[in-house]
Amino acid sequence: MDSSSIEGYRERIVAGPILSSMVRLGLPLMLTDIVFLIYNLTDAFWLSRFSPYALAVPRQNWPVFLTFFSILFGVSAAALAMLSQYVGAKMYDKVNESFSKFLTLFLLISSTLFLIYRFSKDFIFIYMVRVPSEILEDVLGYAEIISFDLIAIGLGIAINTLMQSLGDTKTPATIGAIGALINAVLDPLFILGYGLIPAMGARGAALATVLTRLLSAFIVLYFLYARYRYIRFKLTKHFDIEWLRTVFKVGLPVSIMTIADGFAFTFHLSLVNLFGAVVVTAFTIGFMVLDIANSIFRGFTMSISIMVGQNLGAGNKDRARKIALTASHILLLFIYCGAAIILSMRSYITSIFTSDYLVMQEADRFISIIAWVLPLLMLSFLGMSVGRGSGHTTFPTIVNIIRFWVIRIGLGYILAFVLNIGVLGLWIALAVAEAFGGTASYLWIRFGRWVKPIIKPKPIAETMPETLSRAITKLDNKNV
Fold first, then answer.
1. 3-class SS at 129?
2. What is the mean pLDDT of residues 385-413?
3. Mean pLDDT for all residues in the chain
4. pLDDT tops 60 at residue 464
5. Is there a contact between 333 and 256 (Cβ–Cβ < 8 Å)?
6. DSSP letters spanning 185-247
7. Does residue 231 sit within a domain?
8. Does 442 map to a domain?
9. Residue 474's pLDDT band (boundaries 50, 70, 90)?
């Protein structure tokens, strides 16, 4: 291992000031989230110039993508928990060995998902999602090209998870930001056309995204090899039973949660679609506005996974819980301020994406209802981050399933269609779901039994830094 840099990252996380470590890790992750948002906003901006309802196309695809990525997210959760705890326990030989297995698994799964998605997209969007006829052709064209993104994101998740486990969140974020700039240049060229490049609309947005993500993934891979000379891995066919059992135990709840979330998003979207293209477009705009706020703070929740994982690996159980609680209180304070800003600027923000009065009116109502529960939504994300870092993912999974299926969909359907409140019932159910998820997650963070590592750390003498070991030996000799 490149001990000077990796040990430096580790020592700051397991022994340094909590807030400064949170900021150091969280800012790059926040940037990564903002980069992802920029991809979506850039697509939406130029698609809105292509046709009135084209900006709704990527949002139609996302819930389905989330469902397909469920297995990858589960494997990612297991990878982050195991790798970060190995780093915290200074079991660096296990990092290379374990990541070789994870990388192979990621590539096998993402390639399989690509083939399944590619050949089932028509059935999914026509019969399951029930995409409005006005945008169906664009959605199918977008899906045909964006299917390659399954492979690009699979590779990217694998590499970024390793970098984050080491405590390096800056490198992937920097390269991702460069990728976003490239995407911003390619989008108008591919969507609207220029010179010899034909106007491709939604297909062009998908093509720009896939090319940019593939490029970013390979650049991060290059920097990983160049910067960490002792990080070496390879594709392997050797998967031992104990390793697979740990991956299954940690990853299965996350995969179940992500599948449930994906189907819930898809089903919820189909309910929204019943109200027509105006409501669908307003829903898309409203979620983009909320994504702006989410992206500012969600990176900090992701950084908690790394800090919790390394501290549990190092045996710092009390510090791990203190980290999670500190993050909870900071998020609540700052996001309530952010929600107030969004509410005051909601009309101006929605006007950037549409001039249609009916769309603006519905988007305004949606944001007015959901903005005040944004802090609790962040606590739900934080609960999942604590689960990912500790490897204890069952409780956050249960909370998420109740949040989506029982409240967002079940209560939403009753309010909208049984009690005939209409689309307003769907918006109210969304707010209630986030209030429940955030409250339950906070109680689990404070009182839950998640402060137990999932790896078997070596005895302290085996992982002790060489200089410290020599110092103790010298002191013992003096005492003799």
1. coil
2. 93
3. 85
4. no
5. no
6. HHHHHHHH-BTTBPP-THHHHHHHHHHHHHHHHHHHHHHHHHH-TT----------HHHHHHH
7. yes
8. yes
9. very low
